[in-house]
Predict the structure.
Amino acid sequence: RNVTHFRHSEENESFLALDGRGEYEALADSLFFDFGGRTTRENRSELDGRSSQDELNISANDEVRDFYVGPRWQFRLPDATVGQLRYRQRWLSGSGDYDDRTVGVADGMLMNRVAWGPWGWALGAQHERLDYDESHLDTVTREMARAMLLYTVDTSLYLIGGLGYESIAAGSLLDESDAFPFVGFEWQPSPRTHVTTMVEDRFFGTGY
């Protein structure tokens, strides 16, 4: 990217920006490998400086690099149940005071939208582990599971309700676990448009 100033040419800057993702289909309609990368300059503070989405941000101290790769297995069972298992490894690094880190995320889900006529069900679980390169920073782990009921209003709209459980641990700084209810809806009017909205009563307050 090139940022040019008409009056203050000494502030002109050129830098590399990257945003890409893709997948490789190893087995037809079942096993995939996802990969992607992103390099940009964005303010990581919510309290100071430019907006995180400011395209004129040229500060080298705000550079962030994010790369990931991992397998994804999708499958179908005879009773109209579909499932997915996925693992994704991310490597994040940056300039300034950004601490380099590695994040591993494993998740899975099972779902049957027509198990009992208009009623269906879904189960999901996720485990996330964040390790900093700096040994004095605590490892952060987060686990979450959800069980939900689905009600089909029509072929594109589903109502959602259920219970979830989460735990998050960050050494001596944080150790929380709690169950929470949630409600929401899923809207998919076309193969290219998919909207899911949920409201949850989490341990830190209301989540959206």
